[in-house]
Amino acid sequence: CVLCGRTDDCPEKYGEKRTYVEYNLTVHYYCLLMSSGIWQRGEEDEGVDGFLITDIRKEVNRAAKLTCNICKKKGASIGCVAPKCKRSYHFPCGIQKECIFQFMEDFRSYCWEHKPVQKFPDRESRGTSQCTICLDLVEQLPVYTVLKSPCCKNAWFHRECLQYQALSAGIFFFRCTVCNNKDKFQKEMLRMGIHIPEKDASWELEENAYQDLLQCYQHCDIKRCLCKKGRDYNEPDSKWEIKRCQCCGSRGTHLACSSMKSWEQNWECMECRSIFAKSGSYSKQKKRSLATSEKTDGTTCLLEEPSPKCPRQSPGSQRNFLLQSPKIMCQNNLPPCSHLELPASNRVTMSLSPLTSNRNWSLRKKHLRQQRREVSNILKELKLQVNTKTTRLNINAENIWNSALKGFRQRNFSPTNTIEIKFTNCKDRSKADTSAASKHRFFQLLMLHLQNSSLFEGSSAKNLSLDFQAVKENLYFEAGKMIAVSLVHGGPSPGFFSKTLFNCLVYGPENVKPALEDVADFDVAQTIKMIKYANSLSSLQSTIHNCYEFLAAAGCLRPVTALCDKNMLVNDILIHHVIKRIISPLESFRQGLKTLGVLEKMQMHPDAFSSILCHKPERLSAETVCDLFTIHSSSDVNKVEGADFWMGYLQDVESGESVVTLEDILLFVTGSYSIPPIGFVPEPTIKFLHIRYPTGNRLLNCLELPITKTYEQFKNKMEFTIRNTLRAERQ
């Protein structure tokens, strides 16, 4: 470069390096922009983007007389604009010395002594947070390499991350990654030396980037397609014409496959109908066309295939199999073959036989398992981010929250590091377990503490509470972060989220309609019930008068002129109490769940993640434990006989004919009472060996079993070893 004298070709740092053979000229674009003695006197197509060649030569000659205050070489074309400051430097030297270059207006440059800095209130806490671009930790310090968002209190970024983001997004799409503010954010970033190019975003300039959007979807997604010529056959103006979903356009059905008589009938896919049902805006009267075809006996239901617009979900991820039991149907006095007035996403046809009810329960359990298998694969994909670098957390089991919080906030903690746990309050510290079992125990204790903490409220299905001290100390963010880390690092899931809390996290609070069950405060719940069940206008007005102060504080006062106005009032109170009141904790909690990309995966696979966040792990069964282990044996061992003894023992344990439980067996081998959502790494195995007693190797998740002549010998050795080992551990 004729201005800085360097051969580096790094567009992100120094701008595009351009060579003009006819002028025998090479120059970095940023070196040219920031040089103090040159201006764009030409048109855009003249010289170098308006910088005339003669002017560039003059600038080179001027700079040749100036010495760089940093590298002490000639050619320093950039000077600090601060009054009375005589420092000059090359552009790369200025970057190295942390000078600020403002790519706006007069393209001013400030040396390391006079550069602008961001102001931080003295009362603002210092610590670490997550850069929302690279998701790595960033220290909350007023240094050159760190920038704070001017519009969001807890948004911190690496300077390098912001610069790459700005170069990619351009002036039209560069904005705060947390709140989407554009004007205030760009103004501050330009002041602090971030270059925002006046161009369209890189993804907008990619050739044929949106080519797929021009394709018209032509495929029948009904589970049992009736067309003999296949799902992709489309014949206009006939019963085999494909009708697309009027909401998303990403799924389709033959008119005949959905019993539609004409093209004019509205049709929505099951996915869109479930969203409408959740938001409460689905109208059963207007949208009667179901994506089903029923036989006359009312026993068959044809459902759609998984959506092609996202990774294929397991059958269990479709909520359409949540069927009502025959008992409920009888209570509603419905004839055996009538349609249930359920939301469209849940409406099915069924008979009243107990066999059907058992089959439906079996289906639900099967689909829940399929969803959890799907989550396991997703979490394993996220775990690829975790490296071999180890971070040790010293944990006091009797003060699990404070010691965990201290560990997560320590400077060298990173969610992408392998976590090692050491319990500091062990009686024999030299034997403190630092294996995977210790990590399982830590995360189990942590999830149990969170469930019973002041951050959540409710009985079994919990919502976020409003704890002002926790908001001040940013504990909601830490809780979300801990849950995300637990899921990816092989710990248990919380399992106590309410459906409302989960939907707020996945779909956004503005798209969620809370229910009375979400209100944990007894007095507030009683107030809502009195309004909801008022049977006359006078009693409704009397109730409103009695709770006037509460309604005024909640911003829910509205004129009531008819009894039906109570529904709107109840809805207002629920939205205020369950959602608006905790909007700040919710946003912090969401930011914490973004750790390691967990929230993004939740939003992509909501049904799958709902199975682990809103439901406790299912009780272990002999079949589940048997499927969990892979049996290995040497050539001189009768694998079949050993496997028979093992299966027989599991069945005895499940039926209560043993002093140990299936959970005890799992704890003996892996150190965990339950199967974590991600599964076990390595996968549990069984070896039949010539040994006296069974051994559980928790480091390898391997159960070594003795070879015995009779089943009674096998059972006695198992019970003696497992019972005494676990008893000793508890003591």
Task: Please write out the topology.
Elements: H1 11-14, E1 17-20, E2 25-28, H2 29-34, H3 53-63, E3 78-79, E4 88-89, H4 91-96, E5 100-101, E6 109-110, E7 128-130, E8 137-139, E9 146-148, E10 156-158, H5 159-173, H6 183-191, H7 202-205, E11 242-244, E12 252-254, H8 270-279, H9 326-331, H10 354-382, E13 390-395, H11 400-409, E14 418-423, H12 436-451, E15 456-457, E16 463-464, H13 468-472, H14 475-488, H15 499-507, H16 522-532, H17 537-546, H18 548-554, H19 565-579, H20 583-593, H21 598-604, H22 606-613, H23 622-628, E17 630-633, H24 639-654, H25 662-670, E18 685-689, E19 695-697, E20 702-706, H26 711-730
Helix pairs in contact: 10-22, 12-14, 14-20, 21-22, 23-24, 25-26
Can you summarize this structure?
By secondary structure, this protein is α+β, with helices and mostly antiparallel strands.
Characterization of this structure:
By secondary structure, the protein is of the alpha+beta class. The protein contains 26 helices and 20 strands. A 4-stranded mixed sheet has the order 17-18-20-19. The protein has a two-stranded antiparallel ribbon with strand order 1-2. The chain has a two-stranded antiparallel sheet with strand order 3-4. A hairpin with a 5-residue loop joins strand 15 and strand 16. Helix 14 (475-488) runs parallel beside helix 20 (583-593), helix 23 runs antiparallel to helix 24 and helix 25 (662-670) crosses helix 26 (711-730). The chain is globular and about 95 Å long. 32% of the residues are buried. Residues 281-357 and 428-434 have low confidence and may be disordered.
